[in-house]
């Protein structure tokens, strides 16, 4: 445990392995903190890379869902893995067109629950992008004062 030394605030106090107090100069603690932050910032810069997902669990699940013979089940598994690889290639081509927040949210979602899928990841990012565009389009229409329904439109009346 590290404590602030109130006699000399530029030093931190910690208990050593032998139980005695050791003084850690504040500069050393500061440098260690900065180095840790730099290492973590390097990791966050790489977070924009396309994630590598393990699609085997989801493909095994898909292959065993049906009551297929063993040979057909293996073919179905291989087809699923190939399909996921094709989807990953599609993601690679379109990756820069998605916002960082959508990528971050959808990658976290795709990795949640144990069975990751590039198809799920791509669908999530496309939906997020499309919803953002719809909201943007709706806002631009409202700024132009374009009515959303015809002026003479009658509301249904109760009989």
Main attributes?
single chain; 3-stranded antiparallel beta sheet; 159 residues; mainly alpha; 58% helix; 5 helices
Note down, in words, how this protein is organized.
The chain is mostly helical. It folds into two domains: 2-41, no CATH class; 56-143, no CATH class. Helices cover 58% and strands 8% of the residues. The chain is built from five helices and three strands; from the N terminus they run βββααααα. The protein has helices spanning 26-45, 56-65, 70-94, 100-111, 118-143, and strands at residues 2-4, 11-15, 21-25. A three-stranded antiparallel beta sheet has the order 1-2-3. A hairpin with a 6-residue loop joins strand 1 and strand 2 (11-15). Helix 2 packs across helix 3 (70-94) and helix 4 (100-111) runs antiparallel to helix 5 (118-143). It is extended and about 65 Å long. The N and C termini lie far apart (77 Å). The model is unreliable at 29-47 (pLDDT under 50).
Write a brief structural summary.
The chain has 159 residues and is mainly alpha-helical.
Encode the helix/strand succession as letters.
Answer: EEEHHHHH
- Helix fraction by DSSP (H/I, runs of at least 4): 55-70%
Low-confidence stretches: 29-47
What's the total number of strands? 3
What portion of residues belong to β-strands?
A: 5-15%
Main sheet strand line-up: 1-2-3
Instruction: Name the average pLDDT.
Output: 74
Q: Using the alpha-carbon principal axes, give the shape.
A: extended
- Please count the helical segments: 5
Radius of gyration: 28 Å
